Amino acid sequence: MRTTVEIPDDLRARLVLEAARQGERGYSAVVERALRAYFEGGTDDDARVAARRLRGCERGETTPEEEAERLAGVRAGFRTGRPR
User: Fold this and answer.
1) What's the sign of the alpha-carbon dihedral 16, 20, 21, 24?
2) Taking the model in full, what pTM does it have?
3) Are 16 and 74 in contact (CB under 8 A)?
4) SS in 3 state form for 20-59?
5) Is the pLDDT of residue 26 over 70?
6) In which element (H, E) is residue 68 found?
7) Res. 59: pLDDT tops 80
8) Above 80 in pLDDT, residue 83?
9) The dihedral sign for the CA sequence 64, 46, 83, 60
10) CA–CA separation, 25 and 81 (whole Å)
């Protein structure tokens, strides 16, 4: 089923990055996995690990500028079909 959800720009950017990191072309699968984990009663530790992954902490902290540049590359890859 398709639906519309309001997501703040900063979270959407992180969601797009995480989807790209997982090799997904869109972020529906990432959202689905997150919702399933949430409703299946994952532990608070699981939620913290997922949140850290979306913030980029597992890859090392980055600056907003670095994330913006990385997101631009991801977006360019979606337009051309080839990630930069």
Assistant:
1) positive
2) 0.48
3) yes
4) HHCCCCCCHHHHHHHHHHHHCCCCHHHHHHHHHHHHCHHH
5) yes
6) helix 64-80
7) no
8) no
9) positive
10) 9
